[in-house]
Here is the input.
Amino acid sequence: MNKQHILRLSHILKSKGITQVVVSPGSRNAPVIIIMDTNKDLEMLSVPDERSAGFVALGLSMKSGKPVALLCTSGTAALNYAPAIAEAYYQKIPLLVLTADRPEYLVDQGDSQTIRQKNIYANYIRKSFQLPSMIKSQDDEWYVDRIINEAIDRTLNPAPGPVHINIPIEEPLYDLKTNLNLSDVRIIELANVESRVNIDTMTRLAEKWNAAASKLILVGQLNPDNKTTLLLEELSNDTTVAVLTECTSNIPNSRYIACIDRAITQIAVERKQYFKPEILLTIGGAIVSKKIKALLRNLRPNEHWHVNQDTDEFHMDTFKSLTTTIPVKPDDFLEQLMAHSIPGMALPDKRKKIITTDDLPISTYLARWKHADEIASILHDKYISELPFTDLKAYHHIFEMAPNDAHIHLANSTPVRYAQLFDHQHKTKFFSNRGTSGIDGCVSTAAGYAVNHRGLTIAITGDMGFLYDSNSLWNRHLPGSFRIIVINNKGGNIFRIIEGPSNYDALEPYIETVHDLDAEGIARNFNIQYTKVDTEAALTASLPDFFKYEDTGRPAILEIVTPNIESANAMKEYFSYLEKNADKPRI
Here is the structure.
């Protein structure tokens, strides 16, 4: 037995552009590790904990934009990949998941480390495949080559995501011959195609677009993309268009409403209808803001166009007003729309004051949103300036002092929510596991990203997320440019902020999970630089050195200890303050 199916797999990986493989140790997958290790075109990264390894691979792919392979042994090891695979599925990150297995005839026969691995990720995978346990004929060779080619191509087409190959391996495991002639291995090419909206459909949509006096473009989570950024900038040079973004949209522009929740506090209930868009255009992934979801579900736009190339999510109706799904890439659609757009065609009569405050006529859709945004920004700055040391004040200093070219990974639940309240510098890029929005694997994802990023990578996490994912540091590939900020308020503070949990006695012992732990021992165990602060003065003094990484050669943790009850109250009072002090009459 020569494990030829594994040799063919290794060869096709290289030929189709997969260059990184995250492996976790084991026996059943050892033949795959050994064979892949002889392939000098593959970079092998060892991460012992499979749950962390899955997210490390996700982070690697997030940065490179290329599929990354994952490899584990048989049994429950494969189950530990599930959280990362679900996140990759919903965030559309390309992963090739390789699970070693016993031969199929040993499943459910009492053999050790054997579970039902075929289709194990059924609900959260683009497609699953299973190789034969050995190659006996030319037909087997044809079958193996076809499966592997298709599996790799499906990680990117028709939309990116995770794909699974289960690899049954016969014993003996170590009778390996790595010098076989593989000249007959087939590489099946996938042709590049362009996605465009039919010209008749595009003409009809453009006519509606140009006739509408209120158009709202809501941008969800996006990886940095220069083409999309430029197209949106050009399209937004129209006062009938308002663009709402979040920091994870990664398209900064002073014309856009970048702090959605802040701006919405300035919209009076009786004037909400003035913010109703005739056309809502949504692009990108997850939206963090619950306020914009509630507002749009209440307003019900006349038309909602959702741009989504993913055939598995054709009719995602987040705002309960979907009228048209546009199954193309966002930049392709924006380019077509821009070619047909006539800025200002639907402007209202400038002599009419559609809405007025005491001294400001607000006659266009963009102006209404900008006015709300500007008033909220003034109130935000005033509130923060008078705030004592709490989570919100700590985030203020972090974002104010972070280098403007940093790549920041925001953990769930509170870090990604706090980040939406601040205006960020243009070069800063933001990432977050908002596919499933779980706390597991956020630091591991950032760690994987840092491996493929030459500059500063900062992970900002709460204490619960950090403790849950502490094995992210059990990783010898961590670069010195990796920085972790832990906001330690001694529990799951989100449950003191959201409405409901704080009304019950079960909050502290069971929901919030109060603890008295810190990160110092964990940092010491993994040889990570460690600093702990618990005052505003100590935080601002420590941040400049913490962000310097060029001379240290080691990753570092900054633990910020904040008061939990005061922090929760400050966050609740923040929105109350913005609403109570809004411009009168509010728009």
Remarks:
- Confidence is low (pLDDT under 50) at residues 349-361.
- The chain has 21 helices and 19 strands.
- The first helix runs from residue 4 to 15.
